[in-house]
Specification:
Shape of chain B: globular
CATH architecture of chain B: Alpha-Beta Barrel
Helix content of chain A: 40-55%
CATH class of chain B: Alpha Beta
Number of strands of chain B: 9
Oligomer: heterodimer
Bound molecules: pyridoxal-5'-phosphate
Structural class of chain A: alpha/beta
Structural class of chain B: alpha/beta
Distance between the termini of chain A: 47 Å
Number of domains of chain B: 1
Shape of chain A: globular
Strand content of chain A: 15-25%
Order of helices and strands of chain A: EEHHEHEHEHEHHEHEHEHEHEEHEHHHEH
Number of helices of chain B: 12
Chain lengths: 394, 275
């Protein structure tokens, strides 16, 4: 599908725009990952942990009342909200933590936005007896208090980042600085399909379990593939995880939903594909939100997990090739979808996948008779305070 | 002032290092973020660095996400960006100091602002050559990603200075260092920029590993903040790079004494670099 000109390149996107200090580390990481990938023992251990501790496979849930509310014949939810710690982030966190341990690195650094990846990393480190330091922007620390407490409870050290926009992008900067400094002993457990090669490919690999399961479950349930697959896109890990199983099925439409914030025209959003341009951020050439001077712009989203000015390089390429259609939904639309799914199906989603739910009525306009698979990437407990403040229930 | 119009960037660098070598001293490379502490201060600070004994100036191009930099350069970059300092303005500063003082000037900044330069990398290289700049240093551009930069810079006789780190294995040094231009920049420690109390213990060994693959001058940077650091590099390196400590010297001084404080600081380091 995508021409990888060389490892880690997706057409013009991807690469390793890193300080020299880290170049041997990413080479070592790539070798270790490929070695683990080919090792049946590692795969068995990963499968065991995913089953017994993460709780996989996650269910596929029919959502008939939601479907009728948005005007579709059938909506199926891939329930990553039911994975341990409440989001898909755990799939990659536990995979990478096992890899770190195999590499003999006993200290883990991670970044987090919504706190889901931080919680997942902290939990995986607790499981495997690794030290865990999580960097989190001070704005996010304030808006995701419960997750900060969870991380601490799980034994992680949470370091607040006060630089720049004080959100996910700055947490990534600080995690990379820590990694540069402690590279000999430290594994950087990156939370999305972003960053330098091999992270986009490796995180995708650990998240393909979502797509593999969902594809099988759809075939069993529908006797067919879904017509459309929808996922929210922050850095793009849940989306690439579910899309990966359908990319070669040309008749399955793939839709990625970015954070439209207060609307693309307002400039206050985090939609790097819909509203960005080609640039280099965090080790990768991809689509980024930037000004004319190449300075990375501050972003806005009601959802901390989507509040990031870049996107994984494979998504940039999938957007360019047209294989995936990327759209943006606003804060308001996501909040409405959050309430809608709660009321119609008794499922409180995270604000991130609420953006994917918000796309359903637009998809219905292409025809009511479609079967739509949605990646419900996480649950909404962490977002209750924000949603209360936003006055969704009046 | 004499202006050597014909010299290419690479030739300017060679000349600056040769002068220091002939005088049997370490060459001094001084980094300052353009626009710190304010736009008007930059040109006076660059002159002060030269007056204090700088052989090469690194003009820091501010970036929103300086992931190889410690707190000092991060803060300086934020302050510069708040004033809207652009790469084009950095080139204008370079042009002025080259014209007035025939200085050897490098631009140091992250990949993205160079890539977004209006008109692209070729246009940047041509504008930089016109400004009299000698080359660029890009801390997030390893050789694997440098082809498009090198093509643009080579055609204008500008150097892209490679950085190497203590973590760089010998096999990689052997492959890459022979292609270096101008000089080779050795990062003294495993970490980000920022003044340190002591230099890494293995600097001499590291510089020795690099020296095996090049006859170009070798500069050591990151962490250097005191005359003792410079003195300890005599006989090890050919040059030292001082950045965060220079910015610290500027910010520690009262507003009307900044240039004097910087000149005195640079000259104390330069003195330590003489035999
Ligand atoms: C529940 C949930 N979904 C989605 C995301 C966005 O990340 P990605 O695009 O990598 O899936 C996050 C990030 O924190 C999240 O917590």
């Amino acid at each position: 599908m995508i021409t990888k000109t060389r490892p880690g390149r997706y057409g013009e996107f991807g690469g390793q725009y890193l300080p020299e200090t880290l170049m041997p580390a990413v080479a070592e990481l790539e070798a270790a990952w490929l070695d683990a990938r080919a090792d049946a023992e590692f795969q068995r251990e990963l499968a065991r942990v995913l089953r017994d501790w993460v709780g996989r496979p996650t269910p596929l849930t029919d959502a008939p009342r939601l479907a009728s509310a948005v005007g579709l014949s059938r909506v199926l939810l891939k329930r990553e909200d039911l994975a341990h710690t409440g989001a898909h982030k755990i799939n990659s966190a536990v995979g990478q933590a096992l890899l770190a341990k195999r590499m003999g690195k006993r200290r883990i650094v991670a970044e987090t936005g919504a706190g889901q990846h931080g919680v997942a990393s902290a939990a995986a480190c607790a499981l495997l007896g690794l030290d865990c330091v999580v960097y989190m922007g001070s704005v996010d620390v304030r808006r995701q208090q419960a997750n900060v407490f969870r991380m601490k409870l799980l034994g992680a050290e949470v370091r607040e980042v006060d630089a720049g926009s004080k959100t996910l992008k700055d947490a990534v900067n600080e995690a990379i600085r820590d990694w540069v400094t402690n590279v000999r002993t430290t594994y950087y457990l990156l939370g999305s399909a972003i960053g330098p090669h091999p992270y986009p490919a490796m995180v995708r690999d650990f998240q393909t379990v979502i797509g593999r399961e969902a594809r099988e479950q759809c075939l069993a349930r529908l006797g067919d593939l879904p017509d459309v697959v929808v996922a929210c896109v922050g850095g793009g890990s849940n989306a690439i995880g579910i899309f990966s199983a359908f990319i070669d099925d040309a008749n399955v439409k793939l839709v990625g939903v970015e954070a439209g914030g207060e609307g693309i025209a307002s400039g206050k959003h985090a939609a790097s594909i819909v509203g960005g341009s080609v640039g280099v951020l965090h080790g990768s050439r991809t689509l980024v939100l930037q000004d004319e001077q190449g300075q990375i712009r501050e972003t806005h989203s009601v959802s901390a997990g989507l509040d990031y000015p870049g996107v994984g390089p494979e998504h940039a390429a999938l957007g360019q090739s047209g294989r995936v259609r990327y759209v943006a939904r606003t804060d308001r639309e996501a909040l409405d979808a959050f309430a809608l799914l709660s009321r119609t199906e008794g499922i409180i989603p995270a604000l991130e996948p609420a953006h994917a739910i918000a796309e359903l009525s637009a998809i219905a306009k292409d025809g009511a008779a479609q079967n739509v698979l949605v990646c419900l990437s996480g649950r909404g407990d962490k977002d209750l305070e924000i949603v209360m403040r936003e006055g969704v229930i009046r | 002032m004499t202006v050597s119009t014909a010299a290419t960037g690479t030739a300017r660098i060679a000349r600056a290092f040769a002068r220091a070598r002939d005088e049997k001293r370490l060459a001094m490379v001084v980094y300052l973020t353009v626009g710190y502490p304010d736009r008007a201060a930059t040109s006076g600070l660059l002159r002060a660095a030269l007056d204090g004994g700088a052989d090469v100036l690194e003009l820091g191009v501010p970036f929103s996400d300086p992931l190889a930099d410690g707190a000092t350069v991060q803060r300086a970059s934020e302050i510069a960006l708040r004033q809207g300092i652009s790469l084009a303005e950095c080139l204008a500063e370079a042009a002025t100091i080259v014209r007035d003082r025939d200085a050897t000037v490098l631009l140091m900044g992250y990949a993205n602002p160079f890539l977004q330069y209006r008109g692209g990398l070729n246009r940047f290289a041509s504008d930089a050559a016109h400004a009299g700049a000698a080359g660029i240093i890009v801390p997030d551009l390893p050789s694997e990603e440098s082809a498009e930069f090198d093509a643009a810079l080579d055609s204008q006789g500008l150097a892209r200075i490679d950085l190497y780190a203590p973590t760089t294995p010998d096999e990689r040094l052997a492959r890459l260092v022979p292609h270096a231009r101008g000089f080779v920049y050795c990062v003294s420690l495993t970490g980000v920029t920022g003044a340190r109390r002591a230099l890494g213990a293995d600097v001499a060994e590291f510089v020795g590993r690099v020296r095996r693959h090049t006859s170009l001058p070798i500069a050591v940077g990151f962490g250097i903040s005191a005359p003792e650091h410079v003195a300890s590099l005599r006989g090890v390196a050919d040059a030292v790079v001082v950045g965060s400590a220079a910015l610290d010297a500027v910010s520690a001084a009262p507003a009307d004494r900044r240039a004097d404080a910087l000149r005195a600081f640079v000259s104390s380091l330069a003195a330590a670099g003489r035999a």
